[in-house]
């Protein structure tokens, strides 16, 4: 297999625990270059943890994450830093620096990671803001933005260093339907326009299925179903069906695992 045809991301038998809490119990998945992929699962299933393992913020207890042919957890600090430079990230909480203007929020990573002259930084910042329709907002402070605008600025910032991979953690959370649609379409358009690979981590099934190519469903610390987004809508898999149609009954557990209720109420020993 040539390096271009090899998956950009390859995760094998990935295990991770916070203390005794085993969150990931053998995740296997791969993401091909140019794909827009969603990791779907209920709140608390470990989606954000998986992203933290991919960026090297956490170390697995077993298994591996390869990105662009490199084993993330075998890299030294310098290697990890270089790899992270090629990853753009957008989080649910936009993470914008509240004391910097929109312009400086985008200029910051360029000043930090490149030797580009200010003139060129200015052109790049305005170009990236233009791509999300917010060139006119460059002089505003984050507090002056609506939630949807803030998310778009964060989106522009995630692309500012021309990453090969962009990861979005709950990009749709808390947005009104129009802003939500705008963000979903921007994620799709940026994936094409920038020729990047993108991962969207979300519990928002309906929105993500409209724009992504491929979906991994995560439950109980493993991948329980996967497939092209369009096929998932027709899937008869009980997990996928329950999740997509938001049904109360099915294999997706609503209750966090706990001791017997009777025992906790002191009714039985
Ligand atoms: N730093 C931490 N220390 C201990 N437990 C944690 C920590 N971070 C997350 N967890 C636990 O690990 C599990 C997975 O959390 P994670 O945030 O990865 O889930 P998620 O699927 O991204 O959820 P959400 O969609 O609500 O963000 C949860 O049970 C959570 O309580």
Give a brief outline of the structure:
With 269 residues, this protein is an alpha/beta fold.
Describe this protein's structure.
The protein is of the alpha/beta class and 269 residues long. The chain has one domain: 3-Layer(aba) Sandwich (Rossmann fold), CATH 3.40.50.300. Helices cover 36% and strands 23% of the residues. The protein is built from ten helices and ten strands. Strands 6-7-8-3-9-10 form a six-stranded mixed β-sheet, sandwiched between helices. Strand 7 (165-169), helix 6 (177-194) and strand 8 (197-202) form a beta-alpha-beta unit. The chain is globular and about 70 Å long. The N and C termini lie far apart (60 Å). It binds adenosine-5'-triphosphate. Adenosine-5'-triphosphate binds at residues 18, 21, 23, 41, 43-49, 203. Residues 18, 21, 23, 41, 43-49, 203 line the site of adenosine-5'-triphosphate.
Write the SSE topology:
Layout lengths: L8 E10 L2 E11 L4 E5 L6 H8 L7 E6 L2 E2 L5 H9 L1 E4 L11 H12 L4 H14 L15 H12 L6 E5 L7 H18 L2 E6 L2 H7 L2 E6 L2 E7 H6 L3 H7 L16 H4 L5
Parallel strand pairs: 3-8, 3-9, 6-7, 7-8
Antiparallel strand pairs: 1-2, 1-4, 4-5, 9-10
Helix pairs in contact: 3-4, 3-5, 4-5, 5-6, 6-7
- Beta percentage is 15-25%
Series of H and E elements: EEEHEEHEHHHEHEHEEHHH
Strand order of the largest sheet: 6-7-8-3-9-10
Whole-number average pLDDT?
89
Q: Could you give a short account of the major beta sheet?
A: 6 strands, mixed
CATH T-level topology: Rossmann fold
CATH superfamily: P-loop containing nucleotide triphosphate hydrolases
Q: How far apart are the first and last residues' alpha carbons, in Å?
A: 60 Å
CATH class, named Alpha Beta
- Residues in helices, as a percent range: 25-40%
Q: Classify the secondary structure makeup into a structural class.
A: alpha/beta
Beta strands, count: 10
């Amino acid at each position: 297999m040539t390096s271009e045809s090899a998956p950009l991301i390859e995760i094998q038998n990935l295990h991770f625990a916070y203390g005794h809490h085993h969150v990931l119990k053998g995740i296997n998945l791969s993401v091909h270059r140019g794909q827009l992929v969603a990791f779907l699962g209920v709140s608390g299933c470990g989606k954000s943890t998986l992203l933290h393992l991919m960026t090297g913020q956490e170390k697995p207890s077993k298994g591996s994450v390869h990105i662009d042919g490199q084993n993330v957890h075998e890299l030294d600090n310098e290697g990890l830093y270089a790899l992270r430079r090629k990853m753009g990230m957008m989080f649910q909480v936009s993470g914008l620096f509240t004391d910097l203007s929109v312009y400086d929020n985008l200029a910051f990573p360029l000043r930090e990671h490149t030797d580009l002259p200010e003139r060129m930084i200015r052109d790049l910042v305005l170009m990236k803001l233009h791509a999300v329709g917010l060139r006119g907002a460059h002089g505003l402070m984050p507090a002056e933005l609506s939630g949807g605008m803030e998310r778009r600025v964060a989106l522009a910032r995630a692309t500012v260093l021309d990453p090969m991979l962009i990861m979005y953690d709950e990009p749709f959370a808390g947005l009104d339907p129009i802003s939500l649609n705008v963000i979903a379409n921007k994620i799709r358009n940026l994936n094409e326009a920038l020729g990047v690979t993108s991962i969207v981590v979300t519990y928002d099934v309906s929105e993500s299925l409209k724009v992504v190519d491929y979906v991994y469903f995560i439950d109980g610390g493993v991948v329980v179903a996967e497939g092209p987004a369009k096929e998932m809508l027709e899937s008869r898999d009980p997990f996928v069906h329950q999740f997509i149609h938001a049904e109360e009954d099915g294999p997706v557990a609503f209750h966090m695992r706990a001791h017997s209720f009777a025992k906790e109420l002191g009714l039985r020993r």
